[in-house]
Amino acid sequence: MEFKIKHGNLAGQKTPCLILGIFEKHKLSGPAEAIDKASNGYLSDILRTGDMDGKTGRTLMLYGVPGVSCERVLLVGCGKRKEFDRRSYRKALAAVVTLLNDTRITTALCTLPEVIPEEMTHYRTVRDAVTTCDDSIYHYDRTKQEKKSPRFPLKRFELWVAEKQDTAQAAVRHGDAIARGVTLAKDLSNLPGNICTPAYLADKAIDLGKDYPDLRVEILEEKDLKALGMGALLSVSRGSRQPAKLILMEYRGGAKDAKPVVLVGKGLTFDAGGISIKPASNMDEMKFDMCGGASVFGAMLSALELALSLNLVGVVPASENLPDGDASKPGDIVTSMSGQTIEILDPDAEGRLILCDALTYCERFNPAVVIDMATLTGACVVALGKHPSGLFTQNEQLAAEILAASEAAGDRTWRMPLWDDYQDELDSNFADMANIGNSRRGGAITAACFLSRYTKKYPWAHLDIAGIAWRSGKEKGATGRPVSLLTEFILKRSGQLK
Predict the structure, then answer these.
(1) Which one of 58, 352, 481, 493 is the catalytic residue?
(2) Which fold has domain 2-161?
C-alpha cells in the first residue's frame, strides 16, 4: 500500500473517502468538528439520530455530505475521549482499513493521525497508521490454490495532518520500512516446515544480499560448524535429514571501526521435541519455532530499507529438532563452542543449544551489544501471557534502552529477573551444566541463565517471544513481533530517531 502525507483545507480535499474520528456521547474529533462546521452541522445531526455511538471500531459511511469536496465520509468510533489511547487508536485504524479493503474504494484520506492520544506524538500517530494499516491488510496465501485477496484492495492511504511537517514524512518512511520487515517475518514464519527448512532460510538470506548490495551474507555449513566446535548446535540437527546452517548477515552502514549491534534469532524451522517428542495436539504450530530467526530477517530488511548509519549483524542458527535413531538422547553430553559441556536432560529444550553456540560465535564481531530473541519457553507464556515478550539482562543501561524502545514502538516487553540465585538450578553431576533446570519452577528464567553463561564478553539481552510470536485459533498466524521493537532500538542507536 502507498502512503502519502496531505495537509491544507480539509473540507476542500478531493478524495473518494474522508475518514473522521468520533467519540462516544456525540463528541467530535478536531477534524470532524471542522467538517461539521463546513457542512452546517450535518455530522452533529447524524450523530443525534443514534446511528453512530462512537464505540471503538464502529463505522458509519455517509454519502452526499454538503460543503465538502470528498465523495464519502467514513465515521469511525474512537471510544471515550478521556480513555482514548494507543490501543484504541490502532483498533480504530484497523477497523477502517478492514472495511475499506472490502469495498471498491482504492484511495482514502484519513484524519486519525490528528486525533492524538496523550502518550503519543504526531510522529507516532503517523508511523502507527502505516504499520497498523499494513498489518490489517496482511493475508497469507502462498500455499493456497484459491487466492482470497480482496477484489478491490485499498491501494493508497493518505494521512492528513493540519500543518506541513518533516516529522510526518519521516514517520511514513520509518513506518513503511518497519511494515516491510514485519511482513517478511510473517511470511517466513507462516510457511510450513516442509518448505521453510534451514536451507530455505539460508537461500532467503542470499536473496536478500542480492537485493541489497550493502548486505554481506555468509552461510556456515555443518562441516564449518564441526570445525568450529559447535557441538551444541549440531546435537540438535542429528535427528533431521535437513543439515543445520548458521546464517550470517552483515550490514556496514556506520563507521568502519564502530562496534556493531548483533541480533541473534532462534531458527528452529520445526520442533517435534526430538526424542522427547511433543504431544500431537497443536504440534503444527511448532513451525513457528523459527519466529526469532524470522524477526532478525525482518529487522535487517528494515535497516536496509532505511540505510541506517550503524553497523548491524544478524545471526540465525537454523535447524530442525526431530526424532531419529541418531537423535540426541536424554543424558547425552555435548561440548559447546565455548568448551563448556552440557548434559542434555531434555532434547526438547533445544533452542538454548543452538543459541549458545551462536552467542559464542558473536564474540568475533566485537559487538557493542547482542540481543537474542527466541520462542524459548512455554514458562514465559505462563508467566506473562500473550501480550509482552520477556526481557532478561543483567545490564541496567541496556534494559532501560530496550524497555524504552518497546514502549515507543508499542511492542511491549516486561523485564524478568536474571539473578544468580537461579544458576544452581542448572547444576549437573556429569557436565558443566544441564540444559534444563532441576525443577519446573522459573523455567523461563533458568533458560535465560543458561544463555547468560555464553555472553560474558559483551553486553547482552535475551527476549523470550514464545507468547507473542504467533496467534492460535481462528486467527492463527505469525505476528511479526518483535520487529517493531528491534527497529526502534536500532533507529535510536543510529541517531536517525531522536
Answers:
(1) 352
(2) Leucine Aminopeptidase, subunit E; domain 1 (3.40.220)
